[in-house]
What we know:
This protein is mainly α. The protein has helices spanning 2-7, 12-47, 49-67, 74-114, 116-126, 131-170, 175-186, 194-206, 210-238, 244-258, 262-284.
Amino acid sequence: MHYLVDVRKWNKKLTAGILMLCSFVVILLPINALVRLLSAKIAAGFQSSEEVIHSMEALMASLEGYLGVHILTPDRIQSISSWGVQELSNVLNATLIGILQLLITYFILWFMISDGKKMETSFFNWLPLKSDNTEYLRKELNDLVYSNALGIPLMGVVQGLAGLLGYWIAGVEDLWFWVFITFVAGMMPFLGVALAFIPLTLLLLSKGMTGNAVFIFLYGMFVIGTVDNLARMWLLNKIGHTHPLITLFGVIIGLQLFGFIGFIFGPIMIAMFLLLVKIYMKEFK
Length: 285
């Protein structure tokens, strides 16, 4: 906005409108396409739920015979399915609320873009903090936005692209669906992409594609896992880093409050709270 208006001398309102349109095209349209893809797969899964359950029962039976232990009973499988349906319903409800919040956000964004300098100046002038702490807050807010709003999705994109190559080599059906699952799982700390390639491995095993399943498992463990570690090291050095626990609890809370976009807003909320605690300690300790 600063470059286009102050340097290139564009009209301020026209520039704000163009930037809002760009944000819609670059961010919201791809997310909408991915969510529609996921919704179609979920609907297809419900239509063939009996086949999925029978496949899982066959897989569990073979594992139980191999390990000599009783893992899952039909009642447990039904309980897991019921729990999954309930959680999916909660996420969808939060997503509908998130759409309304998104419209309000765009309304606010118009004023933040068109009057951004005035808002920023007023915000820092009104803060009841010492000048040193105001500068500290300015720097920390900048790092927080970069590490969460850019860093978390970037991790998902990097691991999704890494998974794309392996899935293509293995000839996985519904390639882009599993890339999307890897993208979402890549934003989660701890288990991360294991939430994508392990279910895919089990699915391939249930179809009798043992060689492909072994390849996907090894590829996920060593290739995608290595890419994850290298990407996080780069992220730590370049654009800051958010503690994995903040990301984990932020994602859990954010999904319940905002739906899919809670992947971004949840960690930012928790990080903002911790930043305010730090500021309080610097002011009054």
